[in-house]
Amino acid sequence: MMARDGVILEDILKEKNEYIKVHGKSLLRNDALYKYILETTVYPREHECLREIRLATEQHPLALMAASPDEVQLLQMLLKVMNAKTAIEVGVFTGYFLLATALALPDDGKIIAIDAVREFYDIGLPSIEKAGMTHKIDFRENTALPVLDQLLSEEKNEGSFDFIFVDADKDNYINYHERTIKLVRVGGIIAYDNTLWSGSVAALPDDPLPQFDRMYAECAKKFNSAMVADKRIEVSQLSIADGVTLCRRVA
Asked: Name one Pfam family in it (predicted).
């Protein structure tokens, strides 16, 4: 795990994970209302194998890295509305959103799933196999930039993907965007996770904020500004989960 200024990020993530266990991974600060949303609308429709991965992930010390169930439900519906057939996922973790994507795609759909840590993916793999979705998934154990560059080196891949989901190192989001925008088709969607970073993007300079959160809030703000300025996309900032930015390629 990376270290910055002598601080081990894994330790900070574990501390943040304890907060999320209590309050949930949502910008909605009414815990009872968020619980109501999950228990009324999300969990009753959750696929059995998705539930298995979610429950297994909740026991992991870095469980906060998983996408929120309500966010996953929304994006899964978007995939179906789009009639998406090809996708890329940058940052897989235990495979909760990956399985949701696979379930939304047709039987001949394909997902290139990229993560540098195979052991995380292996947590959810038995449930993905149980769901009968492994034939749709091309898992690549590597950091994302080399894989995206390799995809772009093959002309057939340019503009060939319907949907791309990015939930990886936040300080590389702009670098990822310069590659994903070339891989997604015109009319396709790129979704970037954690773009409001627990609401810290709106923190005042003198607000008490952990250094880690302040650092990633700055990354998120730079990224959000870059997306608004990018004329190749239409952009929408969603206040679901930890903030999701949807980019629809128009040029």
From this structure: Methyltransf_3
